[in-house]
Amino acid sequence: MKLDPRAKMVMALCLSGLALVYNSPLHLLLLLAVTVALLLSFRFELSAIGSYLKPFLSLMLFLFLIQCLFSPSGRVLLAVGTLPLVTTGGLLTGAGVVLRIVVVTAAAMLLATFSSRDFILGLVQWKVPYELAFMVFIALRFLPVFRDELVNVVTAVQLRGVDLKKVPWGQKIAMYSRLLFPVIYGAMLKAQRLAVSMESRGFRVYPRRTYLRRLNFRFVDYMVMLVFPVITIMLIVLQVS
Amino acid sequence: METVMVRGLNYRYHPGGPLVLKDISFQVAGGEMVAVTGLSGCGKSTLCFCISGAARHNRDGVMSGDVLLNGKDTRELRAAELALEVGMVFQDPETQLFSPTVEDEIAFAPENLCLPTAQIRERVDHALDLLGIAALREANPYKLSGGEKHLVALAAVLALDPPVLLLDEVMSQLDRAGKKRVAAALQRLRDMGKAVIAVEHNLEAVSFADRLLVMEKGTLLCDEPTASFLADRVFLNTRGLL
After folding, report:
1. What is the count of residue pairs from A and B with beta carbons less than 8 Å apart?
2. Does B184 fall in a domain?
3. Three-point CA angle A154, A159, A161, nearest 5°
4. Testing the interface with B: which of A131, A147, A194, A196 to mutate, by most B Cβ within 10 A?
5. pTM metric for this prediction
């Protein structure tokens, strides 16, 4: 299915909004099913969601355990003396928190189903100033570069014979803070060179600019942009009342 | 009137620091190509930065002397206005490329110039054809080889259609075919009346230049027609340029 990026942005906003409002795992599971169905219709590789969620697994586990322990309600499944450790209510609350993170991440993946060029064009055609849209785009574009640079610096340290696994945590933190300096300096240098390169190619030479392409709404885009917010508002009202 | 006029140019990276460029003077006319060569650290790239106006980004830098582009003093032009006078391809293509596709990268400059869509497309097609990289149109610039990135960076500047073109060691990472394509493109641009200044280590790659400027420790050692210069093997040998 082909949709205008702006329609997909609205979809992502609606789904994320609903994920924040719902608490019940059943509702969140339904929301996840809708999000996955949409991603599949846009031919998105679902395995990518897993790789995005991987760094958050420990956080999700931590949140799940915290919710299990500190939101006791319902039937007690495990207790230490009179203190309930695991309850059905706690499990459901923990599952809800984890599912909420998964739904928001999956909804954000909708933004990965179109190119960053279309993202800028969409924002600009929504009257967002070009400089602002471009700034967001550049930040997203250089995040992986920044990450690669950090990995390179750490690899360089390891190649000099430092086995990071054997370094105690206290020393490791001190070492990372020292490594951060060259990475930040490198990023600043890169940003400066990029700015020079952009200016030398006429960036902001005139107050406005033209574009090679334009995004055009089709009927289906208008429908998505109407139906999704209406349904979202209705569901939120139902949930709150 | 000369397209590029450099008069008594001196530059140091910070006040009190060593002079990186010392009393450099030369001129380049439209339809002329000049190659600048010299050993590493002799000031070739700094010269490019001064001519393109990029040196102003170093707030500590101290520049004296004049750089005139089509009679306009570079110090009196806004950075973006300079883009209308001179296009520069930097040594490191990584920091020049940021768009998701090669086509977008090349379209960036004409879009900034507020050209109509048809004209933007025309410039993109022309730059792609001139450098023989039409097949890369939809490629992600970040995933290209070093040589291809250089070609895309050059195409992106060509789309600006500036009267002066500065190239800082663009050929260094290109294979033989790439060098040939760039050489052919530069000769065509020269024939179209552009003033081309190419900094290059490899003298063979710029043997078609009209004049050769040799730099040594920040000074301009000589400024001669390329043919007579390349014939002087003794001089080239003594300066370590062979």
Report:
1. 96
2. no
3. 105
4. A196
5. 0.81
8 Å CB contact between B165 and B87? yes
pLDDT value at position B36?
A: 94
Least Cα distance to A132 among A141, A124, A140 occurs for: A124
- A181 and A152 part of one domain: yes
CB A17 within 8 A of CB A231: no
If you write DSSP's letter for every residue of chain B in order, what string do you get? --SEEEEEEEEESSTTSPPSEEEEEEEE-TT-EEEEEESTTSSHHHHHHHHHTGGGG-TT-EEEEEEEETTEEGGGS-HHHHTTTEEEE-S-GGGG--SSSHHHHHHHHHHHTT--HHHHHHHHHHHHHHTT-GGGTTS-GGGS-HHHHHHHHHHHHHTT--SEEEEES-GGG--HHHHHHHHHHHHHHHHTT-EEEEE-S-GGGGTT-SEEEEEETTEEEEEEEHHHHHH-HHHHHHTT--
Q: What does the pLDDT average to over B102-116?
A: 94
Q: Do A212 and B124 touch (CB under 8 A)?
A: yes
Query: Are A136 and A25 in a shared domain?
Result: no
What percent of chain B is predicted at pLDDT more than 70?
99
- Does any CB of chain B come closer than 8 Å to the CB of residue A218? no
Give me the domain span that covers residue A141: 116-210
DSSP summary character for residue A202: T
3-state secondary structure of A129: coil
CB contact under 8 A, B80 and A116: no
Q: Are B156 and B149 in contact (CB under 8 A)?
A: no
Rounded average pLDDT over B116-133: 94
Asked if residue B221 belongs to a domain, the reply is yes
User: Are A95 and A2 contained in the same domain?
Assistant: yes
Instruction: Give the whole-angstrom CA distance, residue B157 versus residue A166.
Output: 50
B148, burial (CB in 10 Å: exposed 0-12, middle 13-18, buried 19+): buried
CATH number at residue B212: 3.40.50.300
Whether residue A115 lies within 8 A of chain B, CB to CB, comes out as: yes
A101 and A85 in a common domain: yes
Are both A27 and A80 inside the same structural domain? Answer: yes
What averages of pLDDT result for each successive group of 10 residues across chain A (241 residues)? 90 95 93 94 85 84 88 82 84 92 92 86 89 86 79 86 81 83 84 85 87 91 95 93 81
Q: Is A229 found in the same domain as A135?
A: no
Summarised one tens digit per residue, pLDDT across range B6-43 is 999 999 999 989 999 999 999 999 999 999 998 888 99
Write out chain B residues lying below 8 Å of A138, CB-based: 98
